[in-house]
């Protein structure tokens, strides 16, 4: 049915038109005038517009969510960048600290090597003094040995002379006794 077309009405349709309620009658008339197709297209268009608005609302929500995620990712990227900066600074500070420690240890090693060198010189002087003392002791021992031998010789001579003196004294005593005896005998 349409506004400029001929229509064939079914049998029983006229009675439906006469007995129809005002709402149904209005639908029949709109259909005959072509308004119902317009209303149908309008309803479809309104539905599409409504779905488009819903899609736009969903897109807006999605865009806001993506913006929040993007902001969070941006903050994370800044934090990661700061972390990398801090890590680089930490590596640099650790390297400087290691260099300072190495330098301090190197200085300590130098100082201790100097102390060891001085102690080695002192030790060598003590060793030289000990060798000199050992040589002096050896000379004194040799001298003592010589003196002991000379003492033994002198002592031997002393005992020998003492023995000779004792014999001479005995001989003198014996001579004196004999002289007395002879004098007594005379």
Task: Offer a quick outline of the entry.
The chain is built from three helices and no strands.
- Alpha plus pi helix count: 3
Give the number of DSSP strands. 0
| Structural class by helix and strand composition | mainly alpha
Spans of at least 5 consecutive residues whose pLDDT stays below 50 are none
Task: Report the sheet-strand fraction.
Answer: under 5%
How many domains?
1
Q: What is the succession of H and E elements?
A: HHH
The residue-averaged pLDDT reads 87
Organism: Pseudomonas syringae pv. actinidiae ICMP 19096
InterPro entries: P-loop_NTPase
Protein name: Chromosome segregation protein SMC
Coiled coil: 35-103
Describe the structure.
With 186 residues, this protein is mostly helical. It has one domain. The protein contains 3 helices and no strands. It has helices at residues 13-19, 22-33, 35-185. The longest helix is centred in the middle third of the chain and has 151 residues, at 35-185. The termini are far apart.
């Amino acid at each position: 049915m349409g506004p400029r077309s001929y229509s064939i009405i079914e049998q029983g349709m006229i009675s439906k038109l006469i007995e129809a309620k005002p709402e149904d009658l209005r639908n029949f008339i709109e259909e005959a005038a072509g308004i119902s197709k317009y209303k149908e297209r309008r309803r479809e268009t309104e539905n599409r517009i409504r779905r488009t608005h819903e899609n736009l609302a969903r897109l807006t929500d999605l865009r806001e969510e993506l913006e929040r995620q993007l902001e969070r990712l941006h903050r994370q990227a800044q934090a990661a960048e700061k972390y990398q900066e801090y890590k680089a600074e930490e590596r640099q500070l650790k390297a400087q600290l290691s260099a300072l420690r190495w330098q301090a240890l190197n200085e300590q090693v130098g100082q201790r090597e100097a102390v060891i060198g001085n102690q080695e010189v002192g030790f060598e002087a003590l060793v030289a003094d000990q060798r000199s003392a050992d040589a002096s002791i050896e000379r004194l021992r040799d001298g003592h040995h010589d003196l002991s031998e000379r003492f033994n010789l002198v002592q031997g001579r002393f005992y020998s002379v003492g023995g000779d003196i004792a014999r001479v004294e005995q001989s003198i005593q014996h001579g004196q006794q004999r002289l007395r005896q002879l004098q007594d005998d005379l």
